[in-house]
Amino acid sequence: MNITHVRLLTVPVSDQDAAKDFYATKLGFEVVMDRSTGPMRWLQVAPKGAETNVVLANHVPGAAPGSVHGLMLETTDLDADCERLRDAGVRVEGPQDLPWGRQATLTDPDGNGIVLAAR
Questions:
Q1: In whole angstroms, what separates CA 52 from the centre of its chain?
Q2: How far apart are CA 118 and CA 98, in angstroms?
Q3: Could you count the other beta carbons within 10 Å of the beta carbon of residue 13?
Q4: SS3 of residue 109 by DSSP
Q5: Do the strands 71-74 and 113-118 form a parallel or antiparallel pair, or are they unpaired?
Q6: Which letter does DSSP use for residue 58 in this model?
Q7: Cα-flanking dihedrals φ and ψ of residue 79, to 5°?
Q8: pLDDT tens profile 37-55
């Protein structure tokens, strides 16, 4: 096998504008692509410099908005990021010390579960 990394991860959302605001404004992701073709909109975001991008899609057959759980994002300063998110009105649980590192949890506007982790 010659797989080198995960390129895209699709997160089903009901409102792409609300999701874009959350991921770009609150999480600080960059908007990599935002294009519409007819009724379909391709909205792709990513942390700055990341190889893996997140597609915020409202057109995924069989995938309901809010059905993603455990999307893990790594941070170099968990406490500061939790504080920043709380200041932006995001409900954050934690951080919590665990045997494998520190983590906090939150959800996007559709209830997709996100884990913010530090080593």
A1: 11
A2: 10
A3: 26
A4: coil
A5: parallel
A6: S
A7: -60, -45
A8: 988 999 999 999 999 999 9
Residue for token pair 């809010």: 66
Tokens of 10: 């699709």
Direct distance between the N- and C-terminal alpha carbons of the chain, in angstroms, rounded to an integer? 28
* Single-letter amino acid, residue 93: E
Q: Find out whether 56 and 112 touch, Cβ atoms under 8 Å.
A: no
> What DSSP character marks residue 27?
S
**Which tens digit of pLDDT belongs to each residue from 67-95?**
999 999 999 999 999 999 999 999 999 99
- By CB atoms closer than 10 A (0-12, 13-18, 19+), residue 67 is middle
- The three-point CA angle 6-9-10 to 5° equals 160
